[in-house]
Amino acid sequence: xxxxxxxxxxxxxxxAFELLEREGAEAxxxxxxxxxxxxxxxxxxxxxxxxxALLSAVAEKGLFLLAAELERVSALAKSxxxxxxxxxxxxxxxWALQHPQLYRLLFTNTPPIEDTSSSSPIAAFAPILTxxxxxxxxxxxxxxxxxxxxxxxGYVLLELTGHLQQCIPVEGFQLGLSCFVQGLxx
Length: 186
Known about the structure:
Blueprint: H1 9-23, H2 30-37, H3 41-44, H4 51-76, H5 81-98, H6 100-109, H7 126-136, H8 138-160, H9 169-183
Helix pairs in contact: 1-4, 4-5, 4-6, 5-7, 5-8, 5-9, 7-8, 8-9
């Protein structure tokens, strides 16, 4: 078989992202990706030295998408930090439920991205830090942000893994998030 197709990193990340979303991390292999792209598997290693490097690139893209959604809803409620945090929490949950495979990759299968430059995905979560800072003061903003994220992430993970079957998950989440947010800075 003759392969003449040119590929680049962006194409690989996009294809891996789509495969992950459709079929999960277990289905994503370099060989499977090469077959889908109609290239030799060995050519993928010219762009990513191993599968984990490709998964890190997919995770980074996912974080950018999540951060963009959080930034968007944050801007809609900028005048009220409690509404802002609540909206970002609800958006986080909705995004995770719409992208369960990607969410699992981001927060259960890969180490955190440690790049803290202004262009990193982590820097895009600044609206949460800013909003909590308005409620609890800058000295406690990082701790308050971690606490909010721990609640939201924990609840979402319980929901995704089927541990909240005896309640209506969205109602419990809304109640918990509302209580949590109302308690900030009081």
